[in-house]
Amino acid sequence: MPNEWDVVFCSATGKLRDTSNTTKHVRKLLDVAGFDGAVGHTFRKTAATWMDADPNTSPREVANQLGHKRASMTMDVYWAVSRILDRSSVDHAATVAAVR
Length: 100
Hints:
Blueprint: H1 19-32, H2 40-53, H3 59-66, H4 71-82, H5 87-99
Helix pairs in contact: 3-4
């Protein structure tokens, strides 16, 4: 819903929502959907990982998307897991999963 703050999670009337109430609501929805233990930040980290996987997206672009001033901060926080994994291993796992 369009709103004057350009936020994603606004109330039905377009007003700002309370952060703690939004967090509780999102957690309930995630639990119902079977994502036990997931939190709102889980999606942020997933988005950062997907952007990292795109060879045409620079760390600066990812940092901008996430609202970080420094790309180095983004890389330190969000690349911790994805950079440990060898790309060929990830590609192989994706191929195996697609076949099944």
